[in-house]
Amino acid sequence: MILVAEGIRPGAKQLTKEITDFVGGEAVKPFLLLLVLAVVGCASTQSPRVADSSARGRWAGKTVVITGASSGIGRGAAVEFGRQGANVVLAARRTNLLEEVAGEVRARGGTPLVITTDVSKAGDIERLAQAAVRRFGRIDVWINNAGLGVVGPFWDAPVADYSRLIDINLKGVVYGSHAAVRQFRAQGGGTLVNVGSVVSEVPMAYYACYSATKAGVLSLDRALNEELRLNRLTGNIKVATIMPWAVDTPWWKHAANYSGHTPRMLALDDPSKVVNAIVNTAEHPSKEVLIGWKAQGAYISHRIAPDITETISGNIVQREQMEKGASAPVTTGSLYRPIQAGRFVEGGQREEMKREDQQRRLPAPPEGPGSQ
Description:
The protein is built from 12 helices and 9 strands.
């Protein structure tokens, strides 16, 4: 992907000010101005299209497998594919929520199939693929969306949590991709969509192992695309990596947390952005899809000046997560077993962060009588 700055467009000056005010430090202003010109003035972007309200029936008769479909981006994508008439195979650990999503898919005109799945188990993934083919005859799109996080200083979380995270975020994608590509080869084509992250490109402090797993997803997809090219399969089999900024979904409630603070991040995106990007990419595959100006800017800046970008990224997380977050106890989230919290597409994280920020700005209570 090549983006070319065309000059200052309306909004560039204000955008530079907003980023600089948050990150702090006059020294980064020239770099940020260059970055903003690249993003705001780019000639070509990977911003997702808005879902077409007239698209009902576009996916009629086609089959889409979605892991992590019980909430968040997976749930949103499942409902949208259902609205467009698809057969939607719903995979996640929370069967009760999958049945709820299935009702939404059915009500919007799609045909759902619920398969309880733990993506960290290769046998579950194989069973998922077999069930989809047995019911619908083929798989047109496979979306590896399931993923969790571990937040906090790398040395504070136990190794067992990192092992489990790798099982879900990386090995789960390997298992799903393997099952999908084998099926695509057998049937003559298909599209694999793997959900990575902006941290696939820009590693993030206090999310070290999560960053490593998402970098692994991007590397897997790049290598897989080369293998498809070398074997003359790129005409019929497509592999795309979705790379969003941080998104307001239940991911934050499901993450294991050793930071001592509530999980949070600067300027969370609405999940509809990512849902629209996934549905559009399934129809019009691109190898790497950066969602929104923040993800595009981070990607471009890391290519231009990786050390500066990683320093800025680290400073943002230090301030937002480790200094501004309210106190919170240690939790393993839903790493080892599913939790019922976080049932919808949106996670409500932006509202929680707003409340925390308002509370932090309140004046300190007056000292009591006799206090020094």
